[in-house]
Design goal:
The protein is an alpha/beta fold and 194 residues long. It folds into 2 domains: 30-108, Histidine-containing Protein, Chain: A, CATH 3.30.1340; 113-193, Histidine-containing Protein, Chain: A (2-Layer Sandwich), CATH 3.30.1340.30. Helices cover 48% and strands 21% of the residues. The protein has helices spanning 2-26, 30-54, 83-94, 113-127, 161-172, 190-193; strands at residues 64-70, 73-80, 101-104, 107-108, 143-148, 151-158, 179-182, 185-186. Strands 1, 2, 3 and 4 form a 4-stranded mixed sheet that branches. Strands 5, 6, 7 and 8 form a 4-stranded mixed sheet that branches. Helix 4 crosses helix 5. The chain is globular, with a radius of gyration of 27 Å. It starts with a helix and ends with a helix.
């Protein structure tokens, strides 16, 4: 009887580490859990920041607001036509729970009647094109037109490469535009750039 108990005990000792080993490997390390938690936190924070920026009352097709998140610090980027939009963006993001600090690197574009005329002309050229009108049927159109000293930058997301090229072509055809920088991103590639 003692021999049977002893052999059972010895066999359990040999089997236990083998049975326990797969369980230890299957359980993710604490660091992976922390990384996933941090990733979810950053995604949630990015979604909240994006929502606050899009909801600003003076935000238009002629403004470009972007941001970068580093843990609990948010850096605001982009260009705006009105100084009030720069300060409103900072105020809105500071109110988000979990944001420790906000660095406001938004550029206020210079006042220029010529640039204002170019903004309207480029808007008509792009959104007046029958294939591009669907982008205008949103509260904030998908293609943002940034004009600074006669130079145009196109920002935003489009459905395909053809739309990206068409917007660029239409903007280049506007008289008095010095240059066009096409920063439009194709929707399939937009997750890489966000």
């Amino acid at each position: 009887m003692k021999k049977q108990v002893r052999s059972l005990f010895v066999s359990l000792l040999f089997v236990s580490p083998v049975a326990a080993a797969p369980r230890a490997e299957a359980a993710p390390p604490q660091e992976n859990k922390r990384q996933r938690s941090d990733e979810k936190y950053r995604e949630r924070l990015a979604k909240q920041v994006r929502h606050q920026l899009v909801m600003l009352p003076w935000y238009s097709v002629f403004d470009n607001l972007a941001f970068r998140i580093d843990r609990d610090k948010v850096t605001l980027l982009g260009q705006v036509t009105r100084p009030v939009l720069k300060s409103d963006a900072e105020t809105a993001v500071k109110r988000i729970e979990g944001v420790a600090s906000v660095k406001n690197d938004i550029e206020v574009l210079p006042l220029s009647p010529m640039d204002d005329q170019l903004r309207r002309a480029v808007f008509r050229a792009i959104y007046g094109e029958p294939g591009m009108q669907r982008y205008a049927n949103q509260p904030i159109p998908a293609i943002h037109i940034i004009v600074k000293n006669g130079n145009v930058a196109l920002e935003g997301v489009v459905d395909g490469e053809m739309d990206r090229n068409l917007a660029n072509l239409r903007a280049n055809q506007v008289p008095n535009v010095f240059s066009v920088k096409n920063n439009l991103v194709v929707a399939a590639n937009s997750k890489k750039h966000t």
